[in-house]
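Fill in residues.
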C-alpha cells in the first residue's frame, strides 16, 4: 500500500484512529481498566466471551481468537490437512497473506483471476481444478462476498474443502448468510483499520466443526491441550490477548451500526460519482449481495493523476495493490497471466471509508473527483 506521504496535512484522512478512539473512549477505557485490574491477560473469560459473541454474530458454532488473520488462514489450511503436492486455488488479486498462508502450509497456491467486482472469476477457478486441487480459498475482497452458491457447488462437485478469506468481509452477506459461515472455516482480521479493529494485530477463525475448533485452539497455544497438558502438535504462539478481546467485545456491539454507516457512505459515493468521467464504481446492492464496504474502490485509467490531484486537495487515498503479487521476485510465484488482476492494479484507488468518514467528507471528495474529470 502506498500513500503520497503527507498524512499530517490531509484534511480528509483515509481512516482516523484518533477520532475512532475519542468516540469510544469511555467504553474502551473501562474495558481496559477492568481487564487489567483483574489481571486477566491470557486465555481468560474476556477471550471466551468475545469468541461466543463473535461466533453468534457470524452465525456459526465456534470462533477461535487468534493474533492475526494470517494465522486464521494458516491454521485453517493445516486443519484441511493439505501438504506437499496439494493445490489450493485462490484469487490473484488479494493481500499477500492469503498466499503466504498456503505456502507456509506446504501446499501450492494456484492463482485464479477475479471479475470486475474484485472477487474470484469462478469460470477461471473451474478451469484450474485438477486432481491435485484440495481446497478452494475465496477472498471476499472489499466487503463483498464471492458468488458463494456457485463456489459451494464447485466444491461439492469436485469434493473440495472451502476456506473463506473473510478478512475484509465481516458483516457482509450473500443470500442472507454471513461471510465466514459457508466453508469449513472463515478467517477474519482485526487489523486496526478493519471494520472491527483491535488495538494492534488480531484475528479469528470461525467454524461449525468442533474438531477444527479444537485443533486451532491447540495450535495457537504451542500445540497444547489446556485441560490435559498434552502436546498434540508442534504448534505456534498465536493467541488473541485478553485485553484485545475485551476491547473487541466493546466494538462488536457497534459493528452493525458501522456496517450500516459504511453502506450509507457507499451509496453517497455512488450517487455523486455515477457517470463521472470514465470512472468505474464498485457494484452496489444486487439481490443476493449485501456488501459491508470495508473499502470503497473505484477505477480510472488516470489513477495516478487523480490520486495526485486528490492529495493536492488534502484528500488521502490508498492503492491496494500497485502490482500483482507475482511481480515481487522474492515471493517466487510464477506469472499466472491474469488479465483482470493486472488491469485492476493499474486502475484502482480506494477512497476514504470508515466509521468516522462523514457525509461532509464524501461531499468534498465527490466535488474534488468531479473537478478532476471536468478539467
Ligand atoms: C484479504 C486479506 N487476507 C488476509 C489478511 C491478513 O490479516 P492480518 O493482517 O490480520 O494477518 C488481510 C489483512 O489485511 C486481508 O486484507
Amino acid at each position: 500500500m502506498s500513500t503520497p506521504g503527507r498524512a499530517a496535512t490531509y484534511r480528509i484522512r483515509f481512516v482516523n484512529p484518533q477520532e475512532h478512539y475519542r468516540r469510544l473512549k469511555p467504553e474502551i477505557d473501562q474495558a481496559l481498566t477492568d481487564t487489567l485490574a483483574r489481571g486477566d491477560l491470557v486465555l481468560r473469560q474476556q477471550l471466551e466471551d468475545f469468541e461466543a459473541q463473535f461466533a453468534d454474530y457470524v452465525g456459526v458454532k465456534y470462533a477461535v481468537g487468534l493474533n492475526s488473520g494470517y494465522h486464521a488462514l494458516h491454521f485453517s489450511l493445516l486443519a484441511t490437512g493439505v501438504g506437499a503436492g496439494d493445490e489450493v486455488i485462490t484469487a490473484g488479486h488479494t493481500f499477500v497473506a492469503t498466499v503466504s498462508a498456503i505456502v507456509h502450509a506446504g501446499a501450492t497456491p494456484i492463482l485464479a483471476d477475479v471479475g470486475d467486482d474484485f472477487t474470484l472469476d469462478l469460470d477461471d477457478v473451474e478451469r484450474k481444478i485438477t486432481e491435485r486441487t484440495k481446497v478452494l480459498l475465496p477472498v471476499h475482497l472489499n466487503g463483498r462476498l464471492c458468488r458463494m452458491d456457485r463456489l459451494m457447488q464447485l466444491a461439492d462437485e469436485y469434493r473440495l474443502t472451502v476456506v473463506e478469506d473473510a478478512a475484509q468481509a465481516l458483516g457482509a452477506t450473500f443470500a442472507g448468510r454471513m461471510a465466514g459461515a459457508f466453508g469449513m472455516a472463515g478467517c477474519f482480521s482485526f487489523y486496526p483499520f478493519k471494520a472491527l479493529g483491535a488495538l494492534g494485530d488480531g484475528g479469528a477463525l470461525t467454524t461449525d466443526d468442533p474438531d477444527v475448533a479444537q485443533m486451532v485452539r491447540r495450535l495457537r497455544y504451542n500445540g497444547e491441550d489446556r485441560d490435559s497438558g498434552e502436546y498434540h502438535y508442534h504448534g505456534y504462539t498465536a493467541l488473541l490477548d485478553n485485553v484485545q478481546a475485551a476491547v473487541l467485545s466493546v466494538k462488536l456491539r457497534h459493528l452493525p451500526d458501522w456496517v450500516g454507516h459504511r453502506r450509507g457512505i457507499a451509496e453517497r459515493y455512488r450517487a455523486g460519482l455515477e457517470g463521472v468521467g470514465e470512472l468505474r464504481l464498485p457494484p452496489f446492492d444486487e439481490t443476493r449481495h449485501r456488501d459491508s464496504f470495508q473499502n470503497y474502490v473505484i477505477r480510472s485509467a488516470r489513477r495516478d493523476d487523480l490520486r495526485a490531484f486528490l492529495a493536492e486537495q488534502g484528500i488521502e487515498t490508498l492503492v491496494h495493490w500497485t502490482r500483482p503479487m507475482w511481480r515481487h521476485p522474492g515471493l517466487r510465484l510464477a506469472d499466472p497471466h491474469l488479465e483482470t488482476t493486472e488491469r485492476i492494479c493499474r486502475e484502482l484507488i480506494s477512497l476514504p471509508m470508515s466509521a468516522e468518514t462523514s457525509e461532509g467528507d464524501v461531499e468534498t471528495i465527490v466535488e474534488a473527483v468531479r473537478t478532476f474529470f471536468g478539467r
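The first helix runs from residue 17 to 38.
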